[in-house]
Amino acid sequence: MPTPSGPNAFAYVWRSPWVRLVVFLVAFYAVYRFVGNITSTLVDFAVAFLIAYLANPLLNWLERGRVKRGLGVAFVLLIFAGLLTLAGGLVVTVAGQFIQLFQQLPAQINNLSDLLDRMTGWLSERGVPGLDNAQTRITDAAQEWVQNIGQNIVPILQNALNSTGTLFNSLVSIGGIIGQILLILLLSIYIMLDYGRINTSLLRAFPRPWQPRVLEFSGLVGTAVGGYVRGQLIIAAFIGIFVWLGLMLLGIPSAAAIGFLAGVFNIVPYLGPIIGATPALLLALPDGWVKMLLVVVVFVLANQIEGNFLSPYILSRTTDLHPVTVLLAILIGAGLFGFAGALLAVPAVALIKLTLEKYYYPSRIYSEGP
């Protein structure tokens, strides 16, 4: 029986653009539903891969020193466990200092009221109008802010510090967060052990002509994700330690809590010192203007060292994201994928910016239009 020389039935049907459109729409919808069902798994894998990526330079350095990969991974896990233990102790200390801080703030409002009273009196004597109720309005707003903090945050911290507290018991009984952390840690161990082979397998999934571009793009991913995360961790640690030591030398109460606050919120550039300066200035009020001026000097120095030296040096190979962009990325990531989304949102935005600068802005589409 002779073989037909014309196109088969499938090729004939595939010629129709409507058929191709329907097939592509159905495939896109199927992929969308599939990815939507495994979103949490993908986020866990992304966090595990990020941990392995951050640890890989240390593992490579150990291998060059003739330390086997498995022993290197065990060493990394020991470091990770030590950091978790240190962080746990620090969290307990900081939580206790936060409780003391929030309990001391209402008393400092009275000092603020006296200070505002003297300032408004001095300005009124010199003819500045509209200051009749300024002191009362500012004091009432500050008291309401402190009361809200005390009512909402202090009970949570007290329950967290109490081993029989409801927060602790609920976390242990549910076990969801602990299970997710263990899963991410287990995935990161497997990825660290076979990091090179996993990367090779991922690369071989692409057609051979595409692989040079994929390698080039993976370099951008390394710059945006790894470089940004490492850089921000170093900068946040510096801000927290600098503020803590500076306030401790000045004799400001709860110095560790304020330093921790400044370091954590420094994920949004320049925001950490501003947030940390508010309670520090209130606590320095009873000691007079000199102590308050020295507190301002500590935070200004931290801000200037970060902005003029650390950020340009550490993040010079990544991206300079605007604070508004960082804040929006964190809010959107947290809204979509929770805590893990907030962690991955800023590196993802940094990667998008690098991709635009590398491929889109130099393209003819950008310069001449589509």
List the helices and strands and how they pair.
Elements: H1 9-14, H2 17-37, H3 39-64, H4 69-125, H5 134-152, H6 154-161, H7 166-174, H8 176-193, H9 195-204, H10 211-250, H11 255-264, H12 271-284, H13 289-314, H14 323-360, H15 364-368
Helix pairs in contact: 3-4, 3-8, 3-14, 4-5, 4-6, 4-11, 10-11, 10-13, 10-14, 11-12, 12-13
Subcellular location: Cell membrane
Family: Belongs to the autoinducer-2 exporter (AI-2E) (TC 2.A.86) family.
Keywords: Cell membrane, Membrane, Transmembrane, Transmembrane helix, Transport
What does this structure look like?
The protein is an all-alpha fold and 370 residues long. It folds into two domains: 37-205, no CATH class; 209-370. It is 83% helix and 0% strand. It has 15 helices and no strands. The chain has helices at 9-14, 17-37, 39-64, 69-125, 134-152, 154-161, 166-174, 176-193, 195-204, 211-250, 255-264, 271-284, 289-314, 323-360, 364-368. Helix 3 (39-64) crosses helix 8. The longest helix is centred in the first third of the chain and has 57 residues, at 69-125. It is globular and about 95 Å long. Residues 163-168 and 170-174 have low confidence and may be disordered.
**C-alpha termini separation:** 52 Å
User: Regions with pLDDT < 50 over 5+ consecutive residues?
Assistant: 163-168, 170-174
Computed structural class: mainly alpha
Rg, rounded, reads 28 Å
What is the mean predicted local confidence, pLDDT? 75
Strand content: under 5%
Oligomer: single chain
What is the number of beta strands? 0
Shape: globular
Return the domain count.
2
Largest sheet at a glance?
none
| N-to-C series of helices and strands | HHHHHHHHHHHHHHH
- Helix content percent band: over 70%
List the total number of helices. Answer: 15
